[in-house]
Automatic annotation (TrEMBL):
It is a multi-pass membrane protein. It is found in: Membrane. This is Sugar transferase. The chain crosses the membrane at residues 49-68, 131-151, 303-327. The keyword tRNA-binding does not apply. It comes from the Bacteria. InterPro entries: Bact_transf, EPS_sugar_tfrase. Residues 1-20 are annotated as: Disordered. One of its GO terms (cellular component) is membrane. It holds the Pfam family Bac_transf. Residues 301-482 form the Bacterial sugar transferase domain.
Length: 487
């Protein structure tokens, strides 16, 4: 069935039968052809290029303020490059948001001032009078802010003429409320073309008033996305990002930008330093990276993992060799224990440990929760587990990229499925590589401790991650290395 028009009011769901689905939207993309993710992002990339050009050339008017004998081309080229780098690190080229005219002035001017300070200290410009330097900085700031305001104003005009089509994902009632607010405020630049909700909610809804199509499967959502050229997905409520993780991953793979909307409660700044929070038709919003997407800070975290794990492997090689020889002599062959664990994005991997326990069967190895206080274990095995020396082989998992030094502890598939059903926040732990240690572990949540508490600490760690936090957790772990607890 093909719908003939988009209904203005989302008050009630439009039941969609199985088969072809079309959610039309004014414009050429309604013909049914979906550009690739690269094509869908072309307007945002063009805006990013314009911002780069504006910031790169904003120093030219400032050059005219400087006396001719001090106009060193190389110095001003380095100044422009430095400002571009600083702006990029501050996410001032994130084109998923169109900021207001005044929103960026503090950030832009502060980085221009830092760039000029560095240039003045390291170049012959330090001999210029302070009044000349202040005038040059002021002109530079004016040119950059005026140019960026022009780019953002042009983008807002384009969005007003042709709003960006969006899908709203979340509980049916809340999603309809968000969609209705967006339709009542067309100047926000986003227009919903469909709602992604659970099929049970649709079947239980008795309101037959027509409204936006309700998409109950990932296939329906992808079809609507393709036929409407959707680039924006609005996720209503924090719980939705966990419940609809698979659907969100699929939508993100098409090049969509995902936003979490605070429809009922404020986000309290949980987006972190990178998140460019803002308002959309009165709703607070922040960027959302679905499970499976490229997680922020992954490059710096991976560099730390490779450097430290490689160094620790070389330093602890003699200790590992002694432990392995002792296990071989006292416990017999088979000193390395291999077990399947679930890592980032739910992908399984083989985790390595020194063998301190021999399960009676494969079923016991997969389903027995803890053997830390097993009376059948020898003194050597108890010692290895109590001092966590049996975990040192996981440094190889870190070096290979299966794990990270810091992150949520990996678990076996049997318990991942079990805990995911009992604790809604458990699947969200797999947004990041699992780790040898983590925030939960340094707070004493090791061995037979509360899974709910672990989920809370692990997800809080991911939401507030920083490289310095990893360093602090590693230092605290080193201080607790001989703590007499099982793993």
């Amino acid at each position: 069935m093909t719908a003939e028009s988009t209904v203005a009011s989302p008050a009630g769901p439009q039941r969609m039968p199985q088969g072809a689905l079309s959610v039309p939207f004014p414009g050429p993309l309604a013909a049914g052809r979906r550009p690739s993710g690269r094509t869908a992002r072309r307007p945002r990339r063009a805006a990013r290029v314009l911002l780069w050009l504006v910031d790169g050339t904003a120093a030219l008017p400032a050059v005219l303020v400087v006396p001719a004998p001090h106009r060193y081309p190389l110095v001003f080229a380095l100044l422009a490059l430095g400002v571009l780098v600083l702006n990029r690190r501050a996410w001032l080229y994130d084109t998923s948001v169109v900021p207001g005219v005044l929103d960026e002035i503090p950030a832009v001017c502060a980085r221009i001032a830092v760039g000029w300070s560095a240039v003045v200290v390291l170049s012959p410009l330090r001999s210029l009078p302070m009044t000349v330097l202040a005038a040059a900085v002021a002109v530079h700031c004016w040119a950059a802010c005026a140019g960026r305001a022009a780019v953002h104003g042009y983008r807002r005009g384009v969005l007003r003429r042709r709003p960006c089509p969006a899908l709203v994902v979340g509980p049916l009632a809340a999603a309809r409320g968000v969609a209705g607010a967006l339709l009542r405020h067309p100047d926000c630049g986003v227009r919903p073309v469909g709602i992604v909700a659970d099929g049970l909610e649709v079947l239980g809804d008795c309101d037959d008033e027509p409204g936006l199509p309700v998409l109950t499967t990932g296939q329906d959502a992808r079809r609507a996305l393709i036929q409407n050229g959707v680039e924006t997905v609005l996720v209503v409520g924090a719980a939705t990002r966990v419940e609809k993780a698979a659907v969100l991953r699929g939508l993100a793979s098409y090049g969509c930008v995902l936003w979490e909307l605070g429809a009922d409660t404020p986000s309290y700044g949980l987006g972190g330093r990178r998140a460019r929070a803002g308002l959309l038709a009165g709703f607070s919003r922040r960027p959302l990276a679905p499970a499976g997407g490229r997680w922020r800070g992954s490059v710096g975290k991976r560099v730390l993992d490779v450097a430290l794990s490689g160094s620790l492997l070389m330093l602890t090689a003699p200790v590992l060799l002694v432990c392995a020889l002792a296990l071989r002599v006292m416990e017999g062959p088979g000193v390395v224990f291999r077990q399947e664990r679930i890592g980032k994005d739910g992908r399984p991997f083989t985790m390595l440990k020194l063998r301190t326990h021999r399960p009676a069967s494969a079923h016991e190895a997969e389903t027995r929760w803890s053997v830390a206080n097993d009376q059948d274990m020898s003194r050597l095995c108890h010692f290895l587990r109590r001092t966590s020396l049996d975990e040192l082989l996981q440094l190889w998992n870190v070096f290979r990229g299966d794990m990270s030094l810091v992150g949520p502890r990996p678990e076996r598939p049997y318990y991942v499925a079990k805990f995911s059903q009992a604790h809604p926040g458990y699947p969200a732990r797999h947004r990041m590589r699992t780790g040898i240690t983590g925030l939960a572990q340094v707070h004493g949540l090791r061995g037979d401790t509360s899974i709910e508490d672990r989920c809370r600490y692990d997800n809080a760690y991911i939401d507030t991650w920083s490289l310095w936090q990893d360093v602090c957790i590693l230092l605290r772990t080193a201080a607790q290395f001989v703590r007499p607890t099982g793993s």
